[in-house]
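tool=predict chain=A
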Amino acid sequence: MASSAAAPAPEPRGVSASVSASSAVGGEELLPIRPPRSAAAASWTALGALIRRDLTVLGRNFVEFAARTVMQPLLLVFVFLYVFPTIGQGIGGSSTSPGESGFATVLVPGVVAISIMFQGIQSVAIQMSQEFGYTREIEDRVQAPCPIWLVAVARVLSGSCQALISAAIVFPIAAVVHAPGVEPDLHVHWPIVVTIVPLACVAMTSLGLVLGTSFEPRNIGLMFGFVVLPLVFLGGTYYQWTRLSPVHVGGFHWLQVLVLANPLIYVAEGMRAAFTEASHMHLYVIYPVLVGFCVLFLAIGLRNFRRRVLS
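tool=predict ok
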């Protein structure tokens, strides 16, 4: 008796005629194919990888980083708050004068501001000038799967983390290095600390981005002489902005007005608001101006960065 051939089972509705990712090929079952990531997801992944890479390098060289960070602030407080009062040459004339403690209260937040600024310039401007110069490392970074501007933002964010770490290292050292009887009057205001310190770090590293993309590697010495030093000495490190009013000509307080163009004055005044009870600029001025400097420096720095990369 002839047997009829069995008819093939009907294909289930909704199954594509093409081979699916989970079908068996050659006796092996393929893994499901993941859909491609969006450009935004790839950019954020690349941003995180760039920041982790910088922080990993920082961790491997942390001793060198800490020594570089501490050296200048330590020398400042050691000379002004220990050596000068001990030899009777400090502010107020003796180690027990109230003027000495007042100067210590002013100086400690000032050296924290200096450490943030120098670390922002060191981690962004100096490093970027090297990458644009002889190392050409910037060519590897811009090949990351993200927009060019995001590479610069990654450098700013990693530099901000380094500036934040430097502030955490410098403050306790500056608070304890002083001659007997020259104790700074410090009061930590945590709501201000957790807001003003990160904002100051971003502002100073954004300034570092501007400087690093504006100066050629061979002109770094010029940058320190004509930009960094005036910022330091006119940035309220050794004095309060509120105490500059006696410097005037014909009733016009020219120095108090002139230093308002210096971003470091707002960082230093913010540190005094965060760590002391000393008089300082109003916080409703400090916060908006620092945010404005962040936006301005990032806009200029990102434009310069793109031009340098594409040139």
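Confidence is low (pLDDT under 50) at residues 1-6, 11-25, 92-96. The first helix runs from residue 39 to 60.
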